[in-house]
Amino acid sequence: MELYSGYINKLVDELAALPGIGNKSAQRLAFHLIGMPEDKVNRLANVMMEAKANVRYCSKCYTLTDNDICPICSNPNRNHKLIMVVENSRDLAAYEKTGKFEGVYHVLHGAISPMIGIGPGDIKIKELVERCAQDVDEVILATNSSLEGETTAMYISKLLKPMGIKVTRIASGVPVGGDLEYIDEVTLSRALDGRIEL
Ligand code: ZN
């Protein structure tokens, strides 16, 4: 039975397919969008398309950026021999906010998760190994402390250690299963300072 117009149903379906949006939220958003002035809806649609068209991966660290090389990778004052590995650009932002890290990053865009079919080849691990073939002193594994994050850290460690690279893991203090982006800056700084060699 069609409760709403076909257009609203289509909109609800698309919104509900986004992460963290259930059917109820999708319906609420859909009705909100329909009630918005047309110029605001156009603006929203445009910024979405602009972001999609212009945002790309940094060709060094794979974070999301507007340029070929992101501002962190192109900063000569950062230590380019110290690489912190994070799961996504939101985690990178969380560490940047602490202002305590002077190295550069590598963004994996996910974590190994056999349960949902994400293997090492599906995230930016090969690219990390290629970067590490150059002059790198230390790789800090700052993946989440979830099962997937730990599995990923272990996997990378096994790849990099035979290459003679110092591999460290951020310390506890980050709660188990905790998403890095929600943890406060002090805790993140402590986790970084207390990192242990693997
Ligand atoms: Zn970069």
Description:
This protein folds into two domains: 6-54, Helicase, Ruva Protein, domain 3, CATH 1.10.8.420; 75-197, Dna Topoisomerase Vi A Subunit, Chain: A, domain 2. The protein is of the alpha/beta class and 198 residues long. The chain has seven helices and seven strands. Helix 6 (147-160) links the parallel strand 5 (138-141) and strand 6 (166-169). The chain is 41% helix and 14% strand. Strands 4-3-5-6-7 form a five-stranded mixed sheet. The structure holds zinc ion. Zinc ion is lined by residues 58, 60-61, 63, 69-70, 72-73. Zinc ion binds next to loops.
Helix percentage? 40-55%
Kindly report the average pLDDT value.
Answer: 90
Task: Tell me the quaternary state.
Answer: single chain
CATH C-level class of the largest domain is: Alpha Beta
Label the structural class: alpha/beta
Topology, element by element:
Layout: H1 6-16, H2 23-35, H3 38-54, E1 56-57, E2 64-65, E3 79-86, H4 89-98, E4 103-107, H5 125-132, E5 138-141, H6 147-160, E6 166-169, H7 185-193, E7 196-197
Parallel strand pairs: 3-4, 3-5, 5-6
Antiparallel strand pairs: 1-2, 6-7
Bound molecules: zinc ion.
Residues 58, 60-61, 63, 69-70, 72-73 line the site of zinc ion (ZN).
